[in-house]
Amino acid sequence: MQYMLLIYESSGRKLGPTEQSQLMQEYVAFTQDIVKAGKFKAGDPLEPTSTATTVRVRDGRTITTDGPFAETKEQLAGYYIVEAADLDEAVSIAARIPGARSGSIEVRPIMKIGG
Amino acid sequence: MAPLALEQFYREEYGRILATLIRVLGDFDLAEEAAQEAFVAAVEQWPREGAPRNPVAWITATARHKAIDHMRRDGRLDERRREMLRLVIEDSAVRARNDPDTQPTDERLRLIFTCCHPALAPEAQVALSLRTLCGLTTDEIARAFLVPPRTMAQRLVRAKRKIRIARIPYEIPPKEVLAERLAAVMAVVYLVFNEGYFATQGKTTIRSDLCAEGIRLGRILRELIPANAESEGLLALMLLHDARREARLSADDEIVLLEDQDRTKWDRKQIHEGLQLVDAALRSGPVGPYAIQAAIAAVHAKAVDAAATDWAEIEALYAYLMSIQRSPVIELNYAVAVAMANGPEHGLRIIESLCARGELDDYHLMWAARADLLRRLGRWREAATCYRAALARVAAESEQRFLTRRLADAEARVSQRPDD
């Protein structure tokens, strides 16, 4: 069963260059781990919300605005799609994501369509 | 089987039967539907044909057949499933014939952990536990928690849907998380009991039906996890509190404080069971918060009257409780024990330091305790101020009335001695 793990980071913290590269290394190690375990399906870091654009189509008009969908204290920083037997396994994978220590990971089941 | 006996049988066995069916069928809703239909069949057939020799096996087997009918109608009964079900049914049937008490207690353990999974909202955990383990109807649970039945029904539907779609596993948690998951289960059980013991909203002070369900859940838990200080402690705590039920309200439905209660109205049999469990808990070790709170309740239960209460021991127990689970509310209770053991001014000092730290400012009982200690010291003006603060924060009507009387008393004293 597949789950999407959405990584939300607190936007307040600013990391220095050493902290940044340390964090990157941890993500690389984590990703390699779950690839080896056959759990990894997809995953990417996202560019910061300052680079985001929001698109809505209303009454046939395309409305484009600068910024993320919602300005919240915690912002979407990346995602993984993983294979897990049940929610407990998905949660234990999510708990190992480096971002979980300071931010929040949302665990969402991926909807199965068709048969 | 007489109707009353059947209802008792339902209450006692529903949880166990449902747990087994969920295990076999792998589906909460299907299991519930099948179980309900099987009980309906029992109500129709048993008065006519007499109760079967193994009623639990009869219900379980009937439910499994009802489930197969459902799955066949829904087109969910493919060949692979049919084969799996056949093997499981045969296996269970063989076991049922060989051993009348065939349901492994494991099944209810799985059920209770699943109902109390942290991925479910706390209100959903409570509702699901009462529904599946105690066999309460949706209406009964709605009434107990003062929400409209429709709201409660939706709460249950959403919870079961989440279990299915997010795939919350129907398993006993692995060793690494067992302790914290068990703590969550106990919190749910104690919440049910407390809701009944001192209803926080509205008119009735005691809803003994919820206390009974809390105790029932506590018994199930203790049966499933024996020789465990916390499961023994939790059950002991609930029994000892509940034993005072008849003495806690006056004839006019007003609160009677522990120190004023008529102890002849306490349920001695329940106290005896509670005390035995406290002893067992202390032997089982390691002791946790429930066992210690039960030990505190035991000190009260053993005192022949309020004056005979060993407050020094209660103070020591609270101090120990604080060392393993510090919280402002526990510190408040500690302050009261210190006051009773050593004099009001000593307890007051602790409460004042709690206030200075900004703790418990919204908690009416903190203000009530502070007012009470000031009252004992004859500091009426300050007591009145604190009673007013408590009244501004209290929700339950019987508590409101109690505090209003105390405030009136304090104000009368102030006007008697206006220079204080």
- Which segments of chain B are poorly predicted (pLDDT under 50) over 5 or more consecutive residues? none
Assign a percent range to the helix content of chain A: 25-40%
Biggest interface and residues each: A-B, 8 and 10 residues
- The CATH topology name of chain A reads Alpha-Beta Plaits
Radius of gyration of chain A: 16 Å
What is the helix/strand order of chain A? Answer: EHEEEEHE
Structure, briefly:
The complex is a heterodimer of chains A (about 120) and B (about 425). Chain A is of the alpha+beta class and about 120 residues long.
List keywords for this structure.
heterodimer; A: 115 residues; alpha+beta; Alpha-Beta Plaits; four-stranded antiparallel β-sheet; two-stranded antiparallel ribbon; 2 helices; 6 strands; 25% helix; B: 420 residues; mainly alpha; Methane Monooxygenase Hydroxylase, Chain G, domain 1; elongated
